[in-house]
């Protein structure tokens, strides 16, 4: 975790930065504490404090080493749906070759970024209990924060947890589980051992259940009930609890406009989307394009061939010049990133139905995505054939959104899809070496 790794030499400023807070100047000439910074000693006392802190929690998701570009990119490089063609050979290049080492600095930075988001979430959850203003929307605020924390732990488990066969097994490995904030050097910065996958899963479910119970239906740049339901469905699908995945996905209201829309780089079915601006940018287009960027990435070598004939998503996923139309804004660098899409919900219903014996529903939901992509209705009549097509549609529909690797892992098909990946222990990323040495964490086997 980010703070314990520096516990011997961390400063108060570093701690506050991890919370998204400003430090207060000690110069006696500054008699008034700036209004845009809050000392962790004082904590939060007003609804305005909490609103600013909530922005900080969302901002942590947008960090460059998290959803600002790194986490989805790492996930798609290891799955080979993206190809590394740039100069970051010791970080992204290593990951793309499935030779990631515990010393890989990008893996360390992404681990740090996720735990920064968790620490900000934990601090706001703690401090929000102290605000007594009746106008403060405490439950809604806490629900958003807990949904974000659940997403963070889902991502940590996805990358570093489980077993080499996938997720949801009795011996699944977890990650350090911190549900209280670190705000000062001391007992709270002591190393925390790895929890089991089951314990982390229980925390994820508790957070998402709280979010579902206290959020309003809605979409946009803030997490709403629809997105929380979709996240719970995603998690249960990943854990191979197909009936539960189907139950939660079915609670997401039907987005009628999805079936009638055409595939495009600018997706219109986002249930939760991170938005950026010219002053709050990401690096997606910058990493993809040569003109206005550095072209670190190209489409994977086999991705184009995976598209059926006539698939309208092909020119989006594999555009002219070896790039994509999902991220194109090289000048402003403000392409949105979709954390949750309705397309994923449709395909979760399809897969959940297929795996629980309802082949009629599975085919119907699958055909929503196929028809929209310009493909004929499915001809699959068995559960296995339907599931194979559903998984393909997930790969193509959610390309470059960081999903495919976790589908390969949860279905125990990494070595089938990527036969050069013979070392099954590499299905889990290595725990960053700094965490092993300073945090006394048990490394993933064989690293």
UniProtKB/TrEMBL annotation:
Keyword Membrane: yes
Signal peptide interval: 1-25
Stretches assigned to the RagB/SusD domain: 323-416
Alphabetized InterPro entries for the sequence: SusD-like_N (IPR033985), SusD_RagB_dom (IPR012944), TPR-like_helical_dom_sf (IPR011990)
Pfam families documented for this protein: SusD-like_3 (PF14322), SusD_RagB (PF07980)
Protein localization: Cell outer membrane
First-listed, main subcellular location of the protein, grouped into a coarse class: membrane
CDD domains associated with the record: SusD
Keywords: Cell outer membrane, Membrane, Signal
Domain of life of the source: Bacteria
One GO term describing the cellular component: cell outer membrane
Residue ranges occupied by any SusD-like N-terminal domain in the UniProt entry: 30-237
Keyword Membrane: yes
Record-stated family: Belongs to the SusD family.
Name assigned to this protein: RagB/SusD domain-containing protein
Organism, as annotated: Hymenobacter actinosclerus
């Amino acid at each position: 975790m980010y703070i314990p790794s520096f516990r011997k030499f961390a400063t108060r400023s570093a701690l506050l930065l991890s919370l998204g807070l400003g430090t207060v100047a000690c110069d006696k000439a500054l008699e008034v504490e700036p209004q845009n910074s809050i000392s962790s000693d004082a904590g939060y006392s007003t609804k305005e404090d909490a609103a600013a802190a909530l922005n900080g929690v969302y901002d942590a998701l947008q960090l460059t080493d998290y959803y600002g570009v790194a986490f989805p990119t790492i996930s798609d490089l290891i799955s080979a749906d993206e190809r590394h063609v740039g100069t970051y050979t010791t970080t992204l290049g290593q990951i793309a070759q499935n030779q990631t080492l515990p010393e890989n600095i990008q893996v360390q930075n992404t681990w740090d970024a996720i735990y920064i988001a968790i620490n900000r979430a934990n601090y706001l959850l703690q401090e929000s209990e102290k605000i007594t203003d009746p106008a403060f929307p405490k439950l809604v605020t806490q629900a958003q924060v807990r949904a974000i924390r659940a997403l963070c732990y889902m991502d940590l488990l996805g990358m570093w947890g489980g077993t080499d066969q996938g997720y949801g097994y009795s011996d699944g490995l977890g990650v350090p589980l911190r549900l209280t904030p670190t705000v000062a050097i001391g007992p709270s910065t002591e190393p925390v051992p790895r929890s089991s996958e089951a314990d982390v899963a229980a925390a994820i479910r508790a957070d998402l259940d709280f979010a579902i119970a206290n959020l309003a239906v809605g979409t946009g740049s803030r997490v709403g009930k629809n997105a929380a339901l979709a996240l719970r469905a995603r998690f249960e699908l990943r854990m191979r609890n197909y009936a539960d995945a189907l139950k939660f996905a079915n609670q997401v209201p039907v987005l009628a406009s999805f079936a009638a829309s055409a595939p495009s780089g600018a997706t219109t079915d986002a249930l939760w989307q991170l938005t950026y601006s010219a002053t709050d940018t990401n690096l997606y287009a910058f990493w993809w394009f040569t003109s206005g960027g550095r072209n670190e990435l190209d489409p994977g070598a086999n991705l184009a061939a995976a598209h059926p004939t006539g698939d309208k998503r092909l020119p989006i996923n594999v555009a002219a010049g070896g790039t994509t139309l999902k991220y194109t804004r090289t000048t402003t660098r403000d392409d949105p990133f979709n954390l949750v899409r309705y397309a994923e919900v449709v395909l979760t219903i399809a897969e959940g139905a297929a795996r629980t014996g309802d082949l009629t529903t599975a085919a119907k939901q699958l055909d929503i995505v196929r028809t929209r992509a310009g493909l004929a209705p499915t001809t699959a009549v068995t559960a296995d054939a339907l599931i194979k097509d559903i998984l393909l549609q997930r790969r193509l529909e959610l390309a470059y959104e960081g999903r495919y690797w976790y589908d390969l892992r949860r279905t125990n098909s990494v070595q089938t899809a990527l036969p050069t990946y013979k070392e099954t222990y590499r299905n889990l990323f290595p725990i960053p070496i700094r965490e092993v040495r300073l945090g006394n964490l048990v490394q993933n086997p064989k690293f």
